[in-house]
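Input:
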Amino acid sequence: MPFIRQPLPSPELVYDQQDVLICIFQRGAADGLNSLVPYGDPEYLTKRPNIGVTTSIDLSEGFYGLHPALAPLQAIYNAGDLALVHATGVPHDSRSHFDAQNLVEGGVVNKTELDVGWIGRHLASSQALTNSAFRAVSIAGNVAFSLTGADEPIAIEAIEGFGLGELTGTSYQELLSDWFEPGVPFSSTAQASILAMDELLQANPGQFTPQNGASYPQSELGNKLRQAGQMIRSSLGTEVMCVDVGGWDHHENLPFYLEASLTDLGNSLEAFYTDMGSDMMQKITVVVHTEFGRRVGENFSSGADHGTGGLAYLMGGGVNGGQVQPLAANWPGLADQNLYMGEDLAITTDLRSIFSELLIKRLGRSDVNDVFPGFTGPTDLSLFLN
Amino acid sequence: MPYISRVYKSLLFKVCFRLLFGHRNTVMMKNGIFDEKISRRRFLELSGKAVGYSALASAVAACSSEGGNGGDTNPDLPAVRIPAPSTEYSILRRTSFGVSRQELQRIEQIGIQAYLDEQLDHENIDASAIEATIASLFPEASKTPTELRPGFPDNFGDVVGQLVNATQYRAFFSPRQLYEVMVEFWSNHFSIQVINGLEPVLKPYDDAQVIRPHALGNFRDLLFASANSSAMVYYLDNFLNFKDAPNENYARELLELHSMGVDGGYTEQDIKEVARCFTGWTLDFGTGEFVYNDGLHDKNEKIVLGQSINFGDQRDGEAVLDLICYHSSTAHFIATKLCERFISDSPSSDVINTVASTFLSSNGEIKDTLRVLFAHNEFLQAYDQKLCRPMEFMGQYIRVLNPNLDLPTDNGQLNYLIISVLGQVPFFWPTPDGYPDSSSHWGSTSGLLNRWRIALSVGFGDLYPLTDLIDNENTAETIINRLANEVLLRPMYDSDRQLLIDYIAELTNLAPSGVIPNQYIPDVVKLVTSLLLSSVYFQLR
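Output:
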């Protein structure tokens, strides 16, 4: 079919109606206990005599402290734009990375219920604000499972190079578009690619540089968040962006590797927050989470094996920040009798509750029946502002 | 630490520059035909990241999510609309890294069964020439840990580079095509990321002595060799698995990824017990060689899958391997993966069960198992069910455009860069599950776009003698008809062909049957080739 150039949406059209969602998935089961340390629990150092963090930055209630590498997040927390939820997860019971990631991204507890991604279901059951090809974006070489179910999510590894160059003109692309007409295998992917290339060319996100003195780490995550910022600024009409950050599977030498991972995470998030500035951050919500946390007790390789409850970070102007949940009084506890299956941090907050509240208060949904069918957990934990 | 050494990197830059763009600019046709003069800079931008270190870094970024699986973004794949290729083409495409015209003619002569039998009898195919070349160009790729250890980490770049190059050379140029397909299959099944700590010292030996000897051999031998591989012991932390201090990582992946599969019926308790069985299976960090250390072994009784294991020595781990290697779950898991490799992304339970039962009845003989798979109707009749992966995309255009299989003059450096852009560098996948084998993973906007960009680089890069593909054809119609046959080796819809003819006609400002001046024919050939490589006809297996 002939390729038709689409006009770009105006920024107001997108951002005044709902937040842009950035979902960062820590792949590999990030350890929550050393990221946000429940130092007020006397069992913490008993269970982690060697790898326990003793220099955490006090954050809340004289109970929780931030890993020192996350120091860049402290100011954001104090400004009320960062909330942290500990002991969270989807109660799927899997300790396989691969299964658990699918279950969390699919928003279900059992493999038999696996269908498409939760974000994909949200997008499929809500009106697109524009007809941009970039409504759902995976800043990666392939589409994140959480986005499946949406109409042709775009996978883009880098803004620069997302095109066919200038060797050939638009008639070359038009021919490809004609060849990949509906019915032909990969037709919709091909059409999305061509449309996306053209929109990117028009929007020219590469023209934007980090503002307000923001300095992104030269890491994959830093690079991806910088580009997320560019895409948002260029009014591509992006509603959801998914970003992966790997390297969290700390079976051994956890203190060393986690510090590096958290330094990257903290600096990248802080850079993005600074770059966007408070006005734009009013319309952006960033969620960071993982597939499950790590075991409470350290192993003999100065690491920790696969566990259950983990940590989630919520950042944005619409976040009811400056709080940690659960309150210390509701902390599940690290003594043997409090542990899930005798080994793991018990989940007190279902991740789907967090996602539900986010979808309703910040992304304009009236309910989540089409996103988490059958989910009966709470959908308002006062983690977000209206 | 750089993924390729500085020397290698600057050589890459120079060679890539020279080979892709020649020593001159390409001047496109004038007078309203093409009116751009293409600068060298534009060529560079065109192939995007295909120069230097950034390509490699981007490739790692492209495949670096730990276990992040794509979902199904291509519901239209089964709705095959394009005209079917010949059965010979389809079978050859699925059992090799690429189909050349010569091979297609050969299989048409001797018949499909004879061809497959020949490929299965791989030791009787003479690969001495390519192996001699590889031994001389890439000596690091087959060295032992003891040989590589002293030079580490300085030799990191050379070792990784040569291992990848050797693998690509074999995949693209070896006459033992089915064997190399199976080497890739098992390398992914027992996936080890080579750019990971000490792995450059360890993985070459794993490739040469674990995967390659047994790829068309026996599964039990393969499994045992892998368990005794220092590369695997290191990758999955089994060297940290001691009595009183067990580490479950290897035990978990042994059951979940190497044998029974995540639904195979084992429990978390089984994983713990299996870990105890493998305590003491470690490596000597001085030499990099596998070593069993009885002093680290947990000698108490273990119960695995309901069986008591109580040897108190290395036989505990071996007993686990014997328990799982012919378990019905293992047969089913392996059969499913084989059917997904050779047939489609969702093979029927009938073919899976057939293959699984042969796996069991032959006691894990891989050739017997494949024979049964290849004899099944679902295999024989399948076509266009899978999107080719990047290695297969490269293999296909290399073998089609370069039927003499001339070896690269740059010792494979450009091919290394291209596979980086496309995101399937051998041994770079970061998690133990190996590169995915589903169209949904590879058929993303980014994936497709990268192929289109590489197609342009190949078309315009003066890499292959493209004008050899035509004879005296000199009109848009005749050139395109000829090239469509030579490059695709399968029929094209008339309407698609006509669109291409009209496109060239318009660009040349001539009628489809108008004679194109000689000096412009090479550029027409390049453009048409790029488009054909970008078409859906080229992508499907």
